[in-house]
# Entry
Amino acid sequence: MAEKIREFKGRAVMPGKVSGEAVVSRQGFNTLASFQKGAMSNKKIIKCGDQNNADVYGKALSGKVLCLPKTIGSTTGGMVLQTAASMGAAPLAMLFSEKIDSLAAAGVILADVWNGNRIVTVDSLGAEFLAFVQHDQKIDIFDDGRVLVHQS
Amino acid sequence: MQKYSLQLTDEEKEILAGKQGETMRKALESVVLYGQIFGAEHLAPIGGSVHLVTSFGIPLLKPVFSLVDELIAAGLKTAKPFTVDPRPMDFQNVPANILEKFIFKKIMYGKQAQYEEQLRKVGLKDDKSFTCTCYMDEVGNIPRKGQILAWAESSAVVYANSVLGARTNRNSGLLELLCGITGRAPVFGLLTDEGRKADWLIEVKTKSLPEAQILGSAIGMKVMEEVPFVTGLTSFLGEELNQRVKDYLKDMGAAAASNGAVGLYHIEDLTPEALELSRGLLKSGYKTYVIDDAELKRVRDSYPLMWKNPAASPKICFIGCPHLSLRQIYEWLEHFETELKSSGKKKLAVTTVMTAAPAVVDAFRNDKDSYSRLTGIGARLTSICPLMYMNNPLCVKKAVMTNSNKLRTYTTARYFTDAETARIAVEGGIHG
# Structure
């Protein structure tokens, strides 16, 4: 059966060209609750520790393409993202269906400017993107904010 | 130099070209990129002092310590002294066994002393500046109406915007410090007139004054990060923004900020911008949410019970998240004494920890008679953050009760109204 590919277009917040596997949170993603436990244990592969998020609880986040509406929770969220990036344990990319929130924005900026760790980030991909994308699907991200979701 | 979409001053362009050093360049670049993402057209000078959210020396946050070290090495500090959220530990006044203390001191907050030293070097106001209610008179970080700020603590942000009429976005930790270092904040969102307009009309139609913590929770869950304009409260609160009303709004706002992501609310005929613009603050096409007693009950009934043993008797009671005002400490003393008298008891049955800013605690301690009455009934007074206490994996297993909806949201603590809290703290059992 031929592979189907669906294209979405968003805004490149932290541009980059990467490919990876999707992990999908359809509800607001709590950065602190998700990364805290794994980061405290200094693990290279952090699994989501947020028991309130059934979509991604227990799933590996490091090196994945995290698809989400936006981040929620503590205003330490940005620093936690920066910390995960400096440990080499952040998501490879973050794809927001909505406009990026101020906490996630701070996180990707801090990681990029202060530590040279780019988390490729695209926002405003739309509700249809989040409804379409599934765990483990291959995703290609381009500099101009184009996102290809491989539906195999 | 990278091309930015913001209009920058000559000085800002020079900083971004590295004329004031590489660290200052990175600090301003972070602030500019932050503004660019949210469509800011320019940066504005910060008028008031910064308030930081990161008060804890948790070893995990290595990049934070490195960044602050970089600021120190470059000789940079905030233009005005800043305040910061509460400290995480106080073993004199907050119960902790040997193992819990070990985890607090050696694992969780092992970098506390080092981090506080860093904060002093980049502009911390003083040793009494550790509180989430920096806007209390005794603490003194009180912004004026219209003043541009860069704060991060969510309960302080919503208070500064709503009750004081100052202007700050709900910033992430570290970004607020970088705004303070550069003396600038990007103008978008709650810094703009348009961003302060209300998306929601909230009609409070209850028979009596709603519990602040549940009303805030209901509003937060409904509007999330949008701006609500609340009617129907002045019939209970009056039209004077006195300390009692400010305390009510403090607790309501903290619940709205934590149960949702509210950064600003307006209260008809009461808060500064509502007094000036009234319903003119409502955006066209605003949504409406009616809150009556049944709706408040529905919201409260939706709170999950997270205790390991749901039938347990409470072991610790936390009152003061966000930190209590001086007036609230007196009010709780009165609540407890009334409840003890009617129960024929002398002391609280549940270990009760009340939290307030260090300067507020000092002010209460100076009233020796009242302080002696409070400690005499067994209550403890501290300035820690209960959330940081509950982050300890051993403490999180305890049956902790609280009157704070913020603490309930972020931890396993069980919520009770103020009246229930006073009764249970005295009697020790929940009785349904």
In short: Chain B touches chain A at residues 26, 29-30, 33-34, 37-38, 53-54, 60-64, 66-67, 70, 152-154, 169-175, 189, 225, 261, 410 (CB under 8 Å). Chain B has a mean pLDDT of 96.
